[in-house]
Amino acid sequence: MNDNREINCFLDEQLLSKMKCSEDELMDDQRIDEEDMDLKASVDDADAYTDPLQETAFVSSNFEWLFKDEDILLQDEQLPEMALKPSKSRGKRGRPPTSSRSFISSNGHTWNLECDPQNAPEEELLAKQQACGKGPTRSVSNAVESWMLLFDDEMLRMLQKMINNQIRKRRTRNRGEQPTDLTELRSWLGLKYLCGVFRNAQHNGPLEELWTLELGNAIFRATMSLTRFLFITDCFSGQSESNWSDIQRLWQKLLINCRSYYGPSGWLCVDEVPALNNMHLVICCDAKTQYMTNAILNRVMPSKDLMQLICDYKSTGRNITLGSRFASVKHCDQLLQCNLSSICRLHPTAPDYPRNWSGGTLVSGAKRLTLQSDIALLTCGLTRPVNAFQTHLHTSDTCAQFLELSARYNTGFSVPKRETGEKTNSFLELLHLMLNIAGCNAWVLLRLSPKGDADIEQRDFQRQLGLFLTQQRLQRRLQRKTTSTTLVMRLQICEILGQSNQRLLSEASSDARQTQGIGVINLDRAKLSKDVALVSRYGETHRRCKPCGLNKRGTKARSRCQQCQVHRCGNHLISRCYECTGVTASQLPEGNITDV
Prior knowledge:
The protein is α+β, with helices and mostly antiparallel strands. Helices cover about 40% and strands about 10% of the residues. The strands form three sheets. It has a ten-stranded mixed sheet, with helices on both faces.
């Protein structure tokens, strides 16, 4: 009996422990279900696909977007007629609808004809990211502040090191070919931006015209000479292939700054653009602002360039418009796995284009292919209210438009015209490309800033940028009194900087009085007395000038005073004619004049 009781007690304890475990598991299941419901509710929220790093609270309301969301959305009456519908959920492949006919592309991909476009699945959320500046870009108020965020001091020091290394290799002792400093380098870059403003015509004159008095501008002559400007340009263009890694680091630093200080909108475009010779340039731009968010520059075509370009936007629900190079089902699937929708134009010769297809909407999982006006659009994960054709119309040419916009006031105009057959310099072309990109992106950042001017034109922005970059050097030349900086040049610098010239005029007047007072003769000595005899102006030997000996110059001269016969150099003699001195023919020494 005791054994049975012990067995029953053991069974009761075992049963109790199982019941506790089952209760704990039930509570855990309930907790997991509640967490799943909360997660689902958060996903269904309107801000599900917003970027956590996006700061839209500081967006300038005066910025003029290239297009608005209303321009690419379907009207209510157009929704039932639209055959382009999204899949059930973003990032997941659903079963293809029942089809009565299938089409196979040349690479073996199967497309099914959509039979019932009215049976629309549950709507997805529309990406609502707005373009905005990040961090210090919210407080920029002028052109140079926004530009310095992208082309910062570290990049300037890298550029200075490259140029000075090239100058030292030349081992020149010419004063006009000395190493440069940051102040001069900024002014050199500022003149390059100004050259893009003043030499953007189709038929430009020679570069020397900008430094002439007749057709040039005073800021070019006041900042630096044309010889010095061309010398620094030649030093950078003389880089060897061994320095290619240095210019690549400069390029990568620019990309990091462009990515760090800008939050793009929900509509991006990726395409390859023909920017440099023998180089492949693929860029990613914001379709609403034409801001370049990322880029890849390489001599060899990279294999994973698309995923590198959109690495910052994974799981943000943005839409990517793909250029002709990336228009394929493979790339659309890759973007869909990153929770990104895509749209591209599929050419009839593309491997994914279905054979014997004449119209209608084809589906393949989350992808849809629609033909309209001989244009086949491939969309993947695109939300239902979006008009695919309007979206492609507004976003497909963004990369090409950015390249044209950045080259509108090209800094490459600061290089003299090349002779026929002369090869272009890849280092100098890449520098001009970086300057153009930095200038165009900085223009967008200034217009997005709450403290900036949203209505400033690109030409005015670049002109102000060039003036700001040259100010420090102009201030230096204004303060230094050298023989190369004349009074006229200093007055022009005051006019360029917007400063008063009264101080310069008063100083010049005082200096003129002192200079004129050096040679003033007392009235008692205005004319020579009758008993004074003049000797020859030149002595027989060279002797030391006494005033110069006091200054440790030790100048020797044959010239001497004709009255006291003391040797003086040309700096310590006053020349007067015979009539002004009152010298008569009888007082003249022999050999001075032959006939009176």
